Amino acid sequence: MRPAPRALLLLLLCLPLPARALPPLADIHVHFKWNQEEVTPAGEAIRILLANNIALALVIGTPAEHALKLQQLAPQRILPIWSPYREPGDWSTWAFDKSVLERARHALASGRWYGIGELHLISGFTPAWETPVISGLIELAIEHAVPVLLHTEYSETRHLGALCRSHPELKIIWAHAGAVLTPGQVAEVMGSCPGVWTELSARDPWRYVNNPITGGDGRLLPEWRQLLESYPDRFLVGSDPVWPVERLDSWDQADTGWQQYGRFVGFHRAWLKALPPEMEEKLRLTNALRLFGKEAITQQ
Ligand SMILES: [Zn+2]
User: Fold this and answer.
1) d(CA 219, CA 267)
2) In this structure, is residue 47 part of a structural domain?
3) Per the structure, how many domains does the chain have?
């Protein structure tokens, strides 16, 4: 039976406004750290995700178990991934920490985690990927058929290119499209490594400000648009709600990133809107659903 117009109107009025106005989006780069929880408790974080109509969120906890707090509140929407980071500064030392592999093995055996990351591979800090901790995590990801979320910061693509070509069966989610790389460099990696999915979190006007993907009008720069059109099935978007960002992992102050969430994700919604509808939907939602086998999630 068709609902009477009045009943329909009432139903619509009951939905929160943004959920009506915004199409669903998959956010592939979300943090929930102890110094974020101080500002934004788990319940408030979920309210923010719902207000922004986030259908799926890949969440990195610091410590890892923090991601499970969000998952408990919204099990259909939250995919926790396992992070080795527990202490301030771990982003720069994790690859030397012999306890990481044992902890990762134990965590992944539980079946609760949808991936490993975010792992920082940073010029001047991180050893070669062939070293035991990094290569061991890669093997574990392959064994459990889960992706690794890698944040690389090198001025060239040699490191990631060698890593992904050596592990064609590994799925890599490449954070921030290489953070500082050009579309041509990103294309080099994606062209030679079909297992690399590239996400554009933090490539916004407030982070990586010297490496924008959009122009002053908020639209993708032509060279970025061309790159996305070349690989429309392997790009993803994300918020990376970390703030402030003067320093990497500024643990000694409260992180207010969740309070900026709407602005971060709104930036991506704006440039997505200018794409052809089929491509827009892939980047906004369905590529991420496919990557995690969640196609059944209805497009709320
Ligand atoms: Zn991150």
Assistant:
1) 10
2) yes
3) 1
Say how many Å lie between the CA of residue 236 and the centre of ligand 1. Answer: 14
Residue 298 lies in a domain: no
Q: Give the distance (Å) from ligand 1 centre to CA of residue 31.
A: 6
Ligand 1 midpoint to CA 2 (Å): 46
pTM above 0.85? Answer: yes
| Residue 109 CB-density burial (10 A; 0-12 exposed, 13-18 middle, 19+ buried) | exposed
Task: Note whether residue 58 is domain-resident.
Answer: yes
Q: Calculate how far, in angstroms, residue 144's C-alpha sits from the geometric centre of ligand 1.
A: 22
Distance 102 CA to ligand 1 centre (A): 23
- Sheet arrangement for strand 78-81: 25-33, 54-62, 78-81
Distance between Cα 149 and ligand 1 center (Å): 9
In a domain, residue 145? The reply is yes
Question: How many angstroms is it from 153 CA to the middle of ligand 1?
Answer: 12
CB atoms within 10 A of CB 196: 23
Range of the domain at 244: 23-291
Tell me the per-residue pLDDT of 59-106, one tens digit each, with 9 for 90 and over: 999 999 999 999 999 999 999 999 999 988 888 899 999 899 999 999
CATH number, position 78: 3.20.20.140
CA of 13 to the centre of ligand 1 (A): 36
